[in-house]
Amino acid sequence: MSSIDMAGGPPERNPIARLWYDKETRSIIMQILTIVLLLTFFGVIINNAVENLRLLGKTFSFSFLWTEASYDINQHLIEYTSTSTHLRAATVGILNTLLVAVCGIILATILGFIMGVMRLSPNWLINKLVYCVIEFVRNVPVLLHILLVHGLVVHALPQPRGLPDWANFGDLAFLTNRGLFMPSPIFEGGSSAILIAFIAAVGFSWWFKRHAKKIQDDTGRVLPVFWVSVGAIIGLPLVAYLVTGMPIGWEVPQQSTFNLRGGMVIRPEFMALWLALSVYTACFIAEIVRAGILAVSKGQWEASQALGASRGLTLKNVVIPQALRVIVPPLTSQYLNITKNSSLAIAIGYMDVVATIGGISLMQTGKEMETMIIVLMFYLIVSLLISAVMNWFNQRIKLVER
Amino acid sequence: MSSQDQAVQSYAPGEHPDLPAPMLTSGPLFWIKENLASSWLNITLTVITALFLFVVIPPLLNWAFLDAVYVAADRNECRELGSGACWAFVSERFTFFVYAFYPSGERWRVDLAFIMLILALVPLLYDKTPYRGYGLIYACLYPFIAYWLLLGGFFGLEEVETHAFGGIMLNMVIGITGIACSLPLGILLALGRQSEMPVVRMLCVVFIEFFRGVPLITILFVASTMLSYFLPPGSEFDLLLRVLIMVTLFSAAYLAEVIRGGLQAIPKGQFEASDSMGLKYWQSMRLIVLPQALKISIPGIVNSFIGLFKDTTLVLIIGLLDLLGLGKSALADAKWTGLSNEIYLSVAVFFFICCFSMSRYSLYLERKLETGHER
Amino acid sequence: MKKLLLGASAAIAMFAVTGAQAGTLDDVKAKGEVACVVSTGVAGFAYTDADGNWKGFDADFCRATAAAVLGDPNKVKFVTSTGKTRFTILNSGEGDVLWRNTTWTYVRDVDVKLAFQGVNYYDGQGFMVPKKLGVSSAKELDGASVCIQTGTTTELNLADYFRSNGIKYEPVPIETNDEARTNYLAGRCDVYTTDASGLAATRSTFEAPGDHVLLPEIISKEPLGPATRHGDDNWSDVVRWVLNATVTAEELGVTQANVDDMVKNPGKNSEINRLLGTEGELGAMLGLNKDWAHQVIKAVGNYGEIFERNIGPKTPIGLERGLNALWSQGGLIYSPPFR
What's the structural domain count of chain B? Predict the structure, then answer.
């Protein structure tokens, strides 16, 4: 039939076909189709889920969050006992995840920058040593690192009973395979003055830094910002401490039948996870830093050296500020990685959000869907937050560009 | 005297013998001065590093090689024979670590699949292979051949169930399936993210950001605990298959971002040129844009494959016994108790060899693709 | 995205095996194997040898089930599970029966929708400590670090027990028995708590088992038994009566060695005859072959033999029968009559 049409002149398409060959309408049709398919897909799986739950006689509800969790968690930043609710347990887990992620990000950044700079050191030995370490660490799964470090901490460090001298720091702190025991402060009345002094010192440092920059811009005189800030942040609270009559007592860990008692403790699970994640991520950050520094044009180095700046000064004031623009975007994804990798805590029994609400609570209540939704939402929100913060930082360092 | 003689001696142009270089501008001493002792700070650093190495390396070597025991019946015998590592454990379990529970009569199929994999990789990775075109066709067919070889069940091969998969073989299966299936999906997602249709774009962005925002292990938990709720009642899904699907989606999201980087690097003129040639969307993508974009993204793709391959160890958390999982479960054997360092180090060495060679390859590619923007 | 959907539906169509809800017994017969959920490794109960063969008390009951349904004890597909994944594996239909150290509790029976089919091992939660600590009672454990397996009832029992006795402790959560053992031996914790049978099994793998003691307190009841999916009565009956058959066989003196003889020359004891299918039609009522119990005993022996072979006093695990002796010998193992 169509061949008859074709025979006479250009092809006459029917109106529907013409709609299809129009780019605009086709795009609208495609999109409507996509939406319909998507809705069908979700409809089908939700329908399946409802049906499956009905067959198993389960209900979909988050009310279990307010029932008693009845398990203990060894590391809790907020008050928690086995009579607390599942919601509380989830909060404890979330805080533990955030703790290890934040500590990991800080340590990984410091280590990463040091290693990245060392990787560019003119010293052949250091250069190659760091290279070997980075390559080995990067090419081995992070889970293996965590297990290895945990094994080392648990097996190589001494037990609390019969502690050797090298692990006993003046009867104040003790390094054992049950953790690093340290004195913990006990705040008494008047200790708020110290906190106020600390905040004041931070504020002063911030002001001083701006002031110094202004002076440097105007006169070229360089003020010792770093030392003044350190002095203020340590000195002011110290003065406040002495003036208010030393209101902080220290609780020192004591030997008891089984364990060291009292004080603060950094548990081996936290230590292993923190160290392994930091070192692993630091090796990636080191390569990012190295690439960033290499991306700064050689002329900048030479110009700075021509002005008589030393290598350290050149790095600090000329190269790294420019390198940061290259470094920050990939650094963001490393920060996201460290947060996501902290979920491997479950392999060594660190009670993070996956181990509490997504682990024991899931087991005790049989609420797979609800608990997994909570865990997934938590990670999504944290990822979006980190991305947002780092984007903001990226914008800021971009603005510096003239 | 003789030097004086030489000094007055005259030579024809170009016949003068080379004089030795001045002191400390070449040779090992110069190298040491430049690279190890250029300043006092450098000398101190060199000494500290050398001391550190001296303290760490010899005991490590002693433990790993000199005092190690390679043949023994159990741990106690190991302890009697030497104070170092007990590699006898690893060598006793070696075949188990490679094939795990795969029926022993059928293990040639795993070997064959592995050899065929290498044959498929050569034309894919090395662009000067003779008859590369045929090789590429074979590489595209390889996943189906491997599926048939490993699972069997038709064409005369006995069926092997996926629960028999484990060890190195499982890492390979998950890693290679993950990358092979996620590549096309990743390309689609990357194109979708660049699409002019807002609904499609939004969909791809949400998909990519979701999978990049959550840890792989929670996704594996979803695969092992939650996914069965979303399937029609009464249907049953192989756990390994569920894991493979989730790993594919996960790595597709990461690949999509790598490929998007490649797409963005293509100059706008290329798109416009292909439009002006009258090419339709898919034609211009297939013939003009993707070949260039993919070529630029190959190093990134190899890097995400390294990441994916390392992440295959995470399946042990949901009870699949990969190499690390088998190693851990082997530690339960009372005969060989407490040898975790040996096991973990062996696994680490295996992953190091695989991943390091892949990263070398990606570096080689990067150098090859570098088109003269050297400073 | 569309391709993804198409791919997903194609994958579902290709791999989905429908009918898990219809009736597990028919499924199992059609598949020709029993998917049996076991733990990833507990000495004596379920573990793999160097060749990857499953051995142990639980593994033998898996074989018994396969022998009853399919007449061949080797037609078992062992599905490993951690404490966390075991119920999901069963509920999703990936496993047909859970023969894995699982405590029968109210919540699991009623809310998690499992169906427990009896008790094959009566256990209780105990404590193990190194002898050199000089501890003789769990009440002296104030301030100790305690290794526990997460996702188990032991975790809850421990919290309850220590709270009610006003004892402070540091829980050290651990995923598997093996990791718990390593951590305990390394001194990460002072005490290891789990089912007393598990403690004995773990202690048997130590270099110097004599240096460690089990404390007298048993702080919980842990009836361990097989579980099936809720609402599949026919299959549940099969699992329950496989267990009962091994117990009845021990009561009646039917052993792996003499069962063939008893079938060939049926004696006068009609309960033995009904059990072994030489009299009556008990097998058909269950939807099985006439000789199902005969196959079970031939494959793995009676309850006592399974116990002695895997965890009894002559094995490295060295568990006494205790509560798990027959009711007629002062224990709790009891089977309803085959009638």
Answer: 1
Both structure tokens of B197 = 């249709």
Measured in angstroms, the CA of C53 and the nearest CA of chain B are apart by: 8
- Nearest CA to C68 out of C202, C235, C317 is that of C235
- For tokens 């090395």, name the residue: B126
Q: Of how many residues is chain B composed?
A: 375
- CA A372 to chain B, closest CA, distance in angstroms equals 7
**Which positions in chain B touch A141 (Cβ < 8 Å)?**
310-311, 313, 324, 351
Give every CB contact of residue C339 below 8 A, 6+ residues apart in sequence.
C271, C274
Burial class (CB in 10 A: 0-12, 13-18, 19+), A87: middle
Q: Which pLDDT tens digits describe chain C residue by residue (339 residues)? A: 444 444 444 444 444 443 344 588 988 998 889 999 988 777 788 888 777 788 899 999 999 999 999 999 999 988 888 776 788 788 878 889 998 878 898 888 887 778 999 999 998 899 999 998 888 888 888 888 899 987 777 888 888 899 888 888 888 988 777 788 888 888 888 899 988 888 888 888 787 888 998 888 888 888 999 999 888 889 999 999 999 999 999 999 999 999 998 888 888 888 899 999 888 888 888 889 889 999 999 999 999 999 999 988 888 777 888 889 999 998 899 999 988
Residues 209-228 in A contacting B (C-alpha not used; CB under 8 Å): none
Q: Left (φ > 0), alpha (ψ -120 to 50) or beta: where does B165 sit?
A: beta
How deeply is B29 buried, as exposed, middle or buried, from its count of CB atoms within 10 A (0-12, 13-18, 19+)? exposed
Structure tokens at A82: 């086995």
CATH architecture classification, C2-122+224-329? 3-Layer(aba) Sandwich (3.40)
Residues of A in contact with B212 (CB under 8 A): 336, 383
User: In chain B, positions 47-86, which contact chain A (CB-CB < 8 Å)?
Assistant: 49-50, 53
Instruction: Read off the amino acid at residue C259.
Output: V
Q: Which residues pair with C252 in a beta bridge?
A: none
**Count of all residues that appear for chain C in the document:** 339
Q: What residues of chain B lie within 8 A of the CB of A301, using their CB?
A: none
Task: Please tell me the distance from the alpha carbon of residue B293 to that of residue C127, in angstroms, as a whole number.
Answer: 63
Domain C125-220 in the same topology as domain C2-122+224-329: yes
Q: What are the sequence ranges of the domains in chain C?
A: 2-122+224-329, 125-220
- Residues listed for chain A: 402
Helix A268-295 × helix A124-138 angle, to 10°: 120
Cα C257 from Cα C254, distance rounded (Å): 8
CATH number for the domain that contains residue B231 = 1.10.3720.10
Q: Where are the alpha helices (DSSP H) in A120-224?
A: 124-138, 142-156, 192-219
Q: Which two tokens stand for residue B9?
A: 């001696």
Q: Which two tokens stand for residue B294?
A: 């993919």
ipTM (interface predicted TM)? 0.84
User: Residue C147: phi, psi to the nearest 5?
Assistant: -85, 130
Parent domain of B314: 165-339
Instruction: Round to whole Å and give the CA distance between C291 and C284.
Output: 10
Torsion over CA: C242, C247, C251, C253 (sign)? positive
Compute the distance between CA of residue C116 and CA of residue C98 in angstroms, rounded to an integer: 9
Alpha-carbon distance of C138 to C110, in angstroms, equals 32
**Neighbors of chain A by Cβ distance (3+ pairs < 8 Å):** B, C
How far is C-alpha A383 from the chain's CA centre? 10
* Other beta carbons within 10 Å of A219: 8
CATH topology of domain C125-220: D-Maltodextrin-Binding Protein; domain 2 (3.40.190)
Compute φ and ψ for A124, nearest 5 degrees: -60, -45
Which residue does chain B place closest to A134, by CA atoms?
B356
Residues A228-258, buried b or exposed e (16+ Cβ, 10 A)? Answer: bbeebbeebbeebbeebeebeeeebbeeeeb
